[in-house]
Amino acid sequence: MNAWVSAGLALLALVLGGVLLGWQGVIFAMAGVVVWLLLQMRQLMRVMKLAGAAPPGSVASAATLASQLHAGMKLVDLISLAGSLGSKQAPETFAWRDAGGDAVEVVLRKGRLAEWRLLRAGEAAGSP
């Protein structure tokens, strides 16, 4: 969800709680916002725990990972799909390799997937 939408919904809940139920409504809305934030943190911690247990830059199948990627994907979703943290190639460029030597190289801009390419093991590294 967009950060602006989330902040707007939280503010709307606080205002509606205050208007409809007074200070108790504000407290109730704040409790809801805190629970939502805790759920988001739990999801992030679960993904990072799974990714931290795997060797960095490794993936079960590079071709499968490449087929599941789409532009605009969040970094957390990318790490969740790969199952590990990527190995840094350049600023904002990360790679994942499978056992066969195939690799997926991704470029992130502002924490979102901008472009990616599948590098097969048989292809030369510099060829188009």
Task: Write the topology of this structure.
Blueprint: H1 3-21, H2 23-53, H3 62-68, H4 75-82, E1 87-90, E2 93-97, E3 103-109, E4 112-119
Antiparallel strand pairs: 1-2, 2-3, 3-4
Keywords: Membrane, Transmembrane, Transmembrane helix
Organism: Roseateles saccharophilus (Pseudomonas saccharophila)
Protein name: Glycerate kinase
Task: Please give a structural write-up.
It is a single chain. The protein is α+β, with helices and mostly antiparallel strands and 128 residues long. It has two domains: 50 residues, no CATH class; 65 residues, Nuclear Transport Factor 2, Chain: A, CATH 3.10.450.730. 51% of the residues lie in helices and 19% in strands. The chain has four helices and four strands, in the order H-H-H-H-E-E-E-E. The chain has a four-stranded antiparallel sheet. Helix 1 packs antiparallel against helix 2 and helix 2 packs across helix 4. The longest helix is centred in the first third of the chain and has 31 residues. The protein is elongated, with a radius of gyration of 20 Å. It starts with a helix and ends in a 9-residue tail after the last strand. This is Glycerate kinase. It comes from Roseateles saccharophilus (Pseudomonas saccharophila). Keywords: Membrane, Transmembrane, Transmembrane helix.
